[in-house]
Amino acid sequence: MDNFDLVYLIAMIILILSNFLGIMIVILYYKRKDESDFNEPFFQDYALNLIKGANEALLDLDIERLKEYESNTLYNIHKNEIETAKYNGELKSFIFLKINKLNLIDYKKENEFEKVICKSCVQTKEIIVDVNTKVRRDTGNVPMYHFMKFEFIRNKNQNLDICPNCGAKLENNYTTKCYYCNSIINNPKCTWVLNREEEFVINL
Predict the structure, then answer these.
(1) pTM, whole model, 2 decimals?
(2) Contact at 8 Å (CB) between 149 and 117?
């Protein structure tokens, strides 16, 4: 092998390696771009509004409004609570008086779903809601602090272009209500919803 062949071989190796490096850079860029789609500061504010909105909708006995904030799983649980309350004449539940900063403890992707789990110290007070008048009355119990864990989910692969109720074209994939018929669009693409809420015990 003469010097020309050696130089040619080295040049080809460099070219191949540079192409491979370029491909890897593109792959890593789009992977990072996909991961950076999750914005933690924005999510914390959004998640806090979901918790407050769901709690208020439950205490207002507003089944339709609950769909804006909750997954089908949690919505069905609260829907049953409201239907039972209508039978009994009253709903006994807790109002969230104060929710401290949400601390993100887990983020993961499972199939087409993204899941985020947060924990917080929440001040609550037990109240009773009259089904007919929707008036809230105090039970006399003092406010309590609970350590709560909240799970949020979203389906990034879901893409709704038309309203499932009236068939009208949706303006974007982030809306939660149809502009034409005012029906609630449950779980639209890239919209986080509250999937689970539970109290947890801190082991000392």
Answers:
(1) 0.68
(2) yes
